[in-house]
Amino acid sequence: MKKQYYAIDFLHNFTVQPKFVAMKKKTGLSEVFKIFQNTESFFEDRNRKQSGQLILNQVIVICTFTFLYGVVMGSYHSILQSMVAGLKVTFLFISVILICFPSFFVIQQVLGSRMALRQMGIIVLSGFVLASAIALSFSPIIILFQVTGGNYHFLQLLHVGIFIFSGIFGMRIMVEALKFACEKKAVYPHIGVSVFRIWIIILAFVGIQLAWNLRPFLCNKDEEFKLFRKYEGNFYTAIVYSVQQLASKSRGEETEETEVPSRTQDDPGKELSDSSIINLLKK
Description:
Number of helices: 10
Number of strands: 0
Structural class: mainly alpha
Shape: elongated
Largest sheet: none
Distance between the termini: 106 Å
Radius of gyration: 28 Å
Helix content: over 70%
Number of domains: 1
C-alpha cells in the first residue's frame, strides 16, 4: 500500500505541479504580447487572479510604452519638456480608457452581450497595448528627423500621423476579437460590432479633446518651457495652421533660390529703384 501511495504521489507531483507552474508563467508580461498571435486566447479560461494579473501587466506595458514615446516627442525641446510630455501621453491614454470604457461595457450588456467584465477589459486594453507598441516603434524615425533639423510643424503632423496609424491597428484587433466572440463563441451580439465602431469614433473625439487640453506635448525650440497653453482654438484649426506653415516655408525656400540681386546688372554700384522694389514685393 505504501509503495502504491508513493507511486500516486509521484505521479501527482509530476503531472499537476508542472501545469501549475505553466499557469503561473502565463500571467507574465510575455502573455501580453502572445495574446495578439491567437484571437482565441482572449477567451481562455482564466480565474480572477490570472485575469487581474494580465490586466495589470497590460496597464504596465501601456504606461511604459506611452511614457517612452512622450519622452522622445518632448526631447525636441528640452529634457524637462520630454519628462512632462512622457507623463502627459501616459495620462492621455489611461484617461481615455477610464472615460470611455464604462459606456462601452454598459451598452454591450444592454445589447445582450454575455462577455464578462474582465474579458472586455482584456480586449480593450490589448488594442491600446498594440497602439502604444506601434507608436513607440516609430521612435527611431522621429529621432532621425529631430537630429537632422526637422521642422517643428512637420514634426507636429508626423506625430499626429503616427497616432492615427497606430490607433487604426489597435482598434482593428478589438474588432477582430469581438467578431470572433460573435461568430465562434456566440457570446457577443452581431449588432454589438456595429455599435463598437461608433464607440471608436467617440473614443477618437475624447482623445482629441483631452490631447488639446493637455498641450503642448511638443514645443518649438524658440519657445520657453510651458506646462500648458492658454490660447484659443481647436485641434483641427491647429492642424490646418501647421500644414499652411509647412507649405509657406517650402514656397519661401523656392523663392530664395530665384531671388533677384539687390543691385542692377548694368551698374553694380547703383541700387534698385523704388519702383523695382515695389514690383518685387508684388511678386
